[in-house]
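Forum: Protein Structure Q&A
Topic: Joint prediction for protein chains with partners

I've read a bunch of threads here and the consensus seems to be that you should model interacting components together rather than docking separate models afterwards. I'd like to see that in practice. Below is the full input, 572 residues plus whatever partners are listed. Could one of the regulars post the assembled result?
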Amino acid sequence: MTVLRVLSPGLHTTVQDLGRSQAQHLGIPVSGALDSVSFRLANLLAGNDETAGALEMIAQGASFEVSGGSVRLALAGPDARLEPIEGGEPIGAKAYQSFTLESGARFRIRLGGASSVCYLAAEGGYAVPHIMGSQSTFVRGGMGGFQGRPLQSDDEIPLSQERASSRPELGLPAPAFPKQSEFRIILGPQDDYFSEDEIAAFLAANFTISHESDRMGFRLSGLRLTHAKGYNIISDGIAHGAIQVPGSGEPIILLADRQTTGGYPKIGVVISADLPALGRLRPGERLSFRAVDFEEARRAARELESWLSQAKSAVSKVAAELAVDMRALFEQNLIDGVVNAKRPMAE
Amino acid sequence: MELGNEIDRQVNAKVIALYKKAQRLEHTGIIAIIPTFRALFVQFDPERVRPEALQERLLSMLDDLDYEDAPGRRWTLPACYGEEFGPDLAEIARQTGLSANEVRETHAGAHYFVYMIGFLPGYAYMGDVPEAIRVPRRENPRTRLPRGSVAVAGQVTSIYPLESPGGWSLIARTPVPMFDPAADMPVLLAPGDLVAFEPVSPSEFAAIERDIASGAYTVQAEGAS
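Posted by a regular:
Agreed with the consensus. Here's the joint model:
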């Protein structure tokens, strides 16, 4: 069996995929990648279906040794880097390029300033069980992923394939995701728990992500909101990106490992197209909100998907001699598709 | 989608019946539904359905809903009341003016309907607690309370599926796991199920706990749907 042996586990490295959304009626959180765009790119470059589980590293990269057979890997995440272990062989690849390593090879992953997360996908995926349709790890419940927990030193993460296939490596120019600090939200469902002035103050405020943040949610400081009619609602369902305001008045943005239901009013929800960029933020960073309507949220989601499908078709046609053209295609798409989508014209 | 604004059997019966019916529909663009006390959380693909159209379709289904269409399962769960298993039983007795025995018999004498599951995996909000033993949440939540704790707060009773912080009053404990992350069906209860508690002694509790660990005891539901 081919495995990745963990030399150092980083701070919080777990198997994640696109989540376990079918068990929410049983109180089981969705979990899944915080930055689904980088997660999907990693799988794309590893030659996988985009639903295969990948290793998500938060705040600090991990290091590994390949053992058994050979493996093809791909790393994706803004600013993420691959490095050899001191005294080891150079890796000969960077993020956004697949690379193949033989048994005995060692490598380290480092995170840069642009994102607190990155993803390491393996060709064929990791051989961990699918529980209720997903390989994602839900750490508080000890469920899914590798033994229901973050990786530890000396863990051996089994790979589904014994050996890397014989095909050319795949690559993309590193996408220049701009650091985002303004996040689009749709107000509600309980925006009626706040006065108009309070909502205006919320939209004008600059918040800082607190250090008590994790995969469950980002706690924000910067403004304590006052509720107009109490802070208890009859518990109802919670979406990824929902912004709940508990009794303290300090908002919490609920993320991948959020509880499925909650009893605090939700003033708004971050639109799905902005969730991957939100997931890249780290404690101490600042953000603000802008209210948009459903149509804008849908348009943004469509633009993001169309950018990803262009990445997919470019990768599937990859060949060394096309690399220059591909770079041109991507730089143009990034500018037209992603950067402008974040700052749409006034309506 | 909100079908009311209170914790009420009639409102919740509509929520659950609509949830069960919507689950059987195909090609709706629905990704997931979470039924709660008085609302349905509906996650959908906006490329496949417009929210107005989806809401209209779901609301129109309310007209010919048969609430008995998919009856829930009936469970009887062993529970050991009082002492270390239910450290707040005596306090509930003090607040309600009943004897500890009366509190136990009243709680165990009722059938509880699973309104919804949330907060933690398998955490079932069940009701209604008989009025005679209703107490508010504790002023000081506990930072850790044991897995299997049967707790009450107002009209609702629940079972903590994991060791967790919690502010509800602990009345008993059940050895039956509500959440087993390694199982094919990790969560025991589902919205719409009916639950009754059967008082057991501490030694019976220990015996059942051993039998669960060895696989000799499995709790069975009646009327599985």
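Chain B touches chain A at residues 2, 5-7, 19, 31-41, 43, 46-47, 51, 116-123, 125, 161-162, 179, 181, 186-187, 190-191 (CB under 8 Å).
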